[in-house]
């Protein structure tokens, strides 16, 4: 998958993305329900107005990934800091 690609107004439910780079990709108004991202580079990717119910992201570079305008690494780090 080329970096910088845009997915817009698409149904990608139950899709499997594996062993690829989606660096700086944009997902706008996309259905990704039940999709899986494994061994993937999502650095700088943007997800906006996306159905992500049941999505699994494993073994991924998520540096700079934003979902609904939120920096995901910052959210994960804040959650980890709150745990005992």
3D structure, described in words:
This protein is mainly β and 84 residues long. The protein is built from 1 helix and 8 strands. Strand 7 (66-67) and strand 8 (70-71) form a beta hairpin. 17% of the residues are buried.
Describe what is shown at a glance:
This protein is mostly beta strands. It has one helix and eight strands.
Can you give keywords for this protein?
84 residues; 3-stranded parallel sheet
Shape: globular
Structural class: mainly beta
Distance between the termini: 39 Å
Major beta-sheet overview: 5 strands, mixed
User: Which series of helices and strands comes N to C?
Assistant: EEEEEEEEH
Q: Strand percentage, roughly? A: over 45%
Poorly predicted spans: none
Write the layout of secondary structure elements.
Elements: E1 6-11, E2 16-21, E3 26-31, E4 36-41, E5 46-51, E6 56-61, E7 66-67, E8 70-71, H1 72-82
